[in-house]
């Protein structure tokens, strides 16, 4: 059977923080599955999921599987396929158990290995507390950085958030605001922007991406009166990107970068720090935002929100961002397969 005729491989969805809403939104995403939609398997504990489904009144049959190949369209139509984790899970929605860090990391690691082996199509992660990585002795502040190590990627991973109305990429990611000016370099801006342009072509199918690079300071520095990063770092990076043939402009004053007319001028906005990027996206499209990691040898997406421990176990969790993450992962994996083959 050639690749084009192969049945779709399932997506590998991780458990995330067991005290959070990951299980609930995964159960709800399965309940809202569409005919022909991407099948997914969940790396978790089947008995725990059955308990949570019952407590929330969700009619979701759980099918424990031994290998991803079992999670085909026929099984997925009838039950949520769950690949059991070796590590135990003690936490319950709303109640953190620090010992669950081992299961959280096992799920991420196995999802990556299965995808690298071609058994699953892409990695989709449920949200974690960054403390879990620390508990396991890992220095990475989030999935974005941890996945680069797991992938053995040469290049640094890049965070992109995508929603129906906006795509944003923070150059600095999980760092204190006070550290941003020190960490911002022309080389970093060039690396991140080139990675974004490449991903927009290969994974999103945008042949000639248009990129806006934002300033750091109010009014993009106002000719140096309100800060010099635009003159010394950001504008030189833009010149290098133009010289490399990119359709790029800026530094754009950040406060004027996200209104509708401004958004129509670019395919992605390169932002200087985490909240400059995520704040407009979550304000516009919180329920449909997807977090994507670029520069990896496999596709990884995640909902845009966090663990939401404050509402875990109450039945209030909205699965739409996870559903968008599952759909985008399947589309990106297929687009990447087609562009790589052409
Ligand atoms: N990909 C990941 O692993 C991510 C992890 N986080 C982590 O999550 C933890 C909590 O972060 P917060 O800043 O509090 O953000 P959060 O997104 O968990 O919660 C913010 C507010 O939005 C609500 N909310 C979030 N998702 C929702 C959903 N699907 N349906 C209904 N309401 C929802 C929560 O109840 C809360 O009131 C932190 O430890 C953070 O590091 C945050 C973002 C992404
Ligand atoms: N705010 C985004 C976030 O914290 C998610 O980070 P990551 O775990 O996807 O690296």
Automatic annotation (TrEMBL):
Primary location group: cytoplasm
Record pathway: Cofactor biosynthesis; pyridoxine 5'-phosphate biosynthesis; pyridoxine 5'-phosphate from D-erythrose 4-phosphate: step 4/5
Other observations noted: The active site is located at the dimer interface.
CC cofactor: Zn(2+); Mg(2+); Co(2+)
Cofactor note: Binds 1 divalent metal cation per subunit. Can use ions such as Zn(2+), Mg(2+) or Co(2+).
Keyword NAD: yes
A GO biological process held by the record: pyridoxine biosynthetic process
Cross-referenced Gene3D superfamilies: Isopropylmalate Dehydrogenase
Summary of subunit composition and partner proteins: Homodimer.
Designated name of the protein: 4-hydroxythreonine-4-phosphate dehydrogenase
Localisation: Cytoplasm
Binding site for substrate: 143-144, 282, 291, 300
Residues annotated to bind a divalent metal cation: 174, 219, 274
This protein's UniProt keywords: Cobalt, Cytoplasm, Magnesium, Metal-binding, NAD, NADP, Oxidoreductase, Pyridoxine biosynthesis, Zinc
Catalytic reaction annotation: 4-(phosphooxy)-L-threonine + NAD(+) = 3-amino-2-oxopropyl phosphate + CO2 + NADH
Similarity annotation: Belongs to the PdxA family.
Single GO molecular function: 4-hydroxythreonine-4-phosphate dehydrogenase activity
Chain's gene name: pdxA
Record-level GO cellular component terms: cytoplasm
Annotated EC: 1.1.1.262
Class of this enzyme: oxidoreductase
């Amino acid at each position: 059977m050639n690749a084009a005729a192969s049945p779709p491989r399932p997506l590998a969805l991780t458990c995330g923080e067991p005290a959070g809403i990951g299980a609930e939104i995964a159960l709800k995403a399965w309940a809202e599955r569409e005919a022909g939609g991407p099948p997914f398997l969940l790396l978790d504990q089947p008995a725990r999921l059955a308990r949570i489904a019952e407590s929330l009144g969700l009619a979701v049959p759980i099918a424990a599987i031994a290998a991803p190949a079992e999670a085909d369209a026929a099984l997925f139509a009838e039950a949520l396929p769950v690949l059991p984790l070796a590590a135990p899970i003690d936490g319950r929605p709303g109640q953190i158990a620090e010992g669950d860090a081992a299961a959280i990391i096992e799920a991420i690691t196995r999802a990556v290995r299965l995808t690298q082996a071609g058994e699953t199509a892409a990695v989709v992660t449920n949200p974690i507390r960054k403390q879990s990585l620390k508990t396991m002795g890992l220095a990475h502040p989030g999935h974005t950085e941890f996945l680069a190590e797991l992938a053995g990627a040469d290049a640094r991973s890049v965070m992109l958030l995508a929603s129906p109305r906006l795509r944003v990429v923070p150059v600095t990611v999980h760092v204190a605001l006070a550290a941003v000016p020190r960490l911002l370099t022309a080389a970093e801006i060039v690396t991140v922007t080139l990675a974004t342009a490449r991903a927009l072509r290969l994974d999103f199918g945008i042949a000639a991406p248009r990129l806006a690079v934002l300033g750091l300071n109010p009014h993009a520095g106002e000719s140096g009166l309100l800060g010099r990063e635009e003159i010394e770092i950001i504008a030189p990076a833009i010149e290098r990107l133009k010289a490399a043939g990119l359709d790029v402009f800026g530094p754009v004053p950040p406060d004027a970068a996200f209104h509708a007319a401004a958004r129509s001028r670019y395919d992605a906005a390169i932002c200087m720090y985490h909240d400059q990027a995520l704040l407009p996206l979550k304000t516009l499209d919180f329920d449909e935002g997807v977090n994507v990691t670029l520069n990896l040898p496999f596709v990884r997406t995640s909902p845009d929100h966090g663990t939401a421990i404050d509402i875990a176990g109450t039945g209030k969790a909205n699965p739409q961002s996870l559903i968008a993450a599952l759909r985008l992962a399947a589309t990106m994996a297929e687009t990447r397969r087609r562009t790589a083959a052409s």
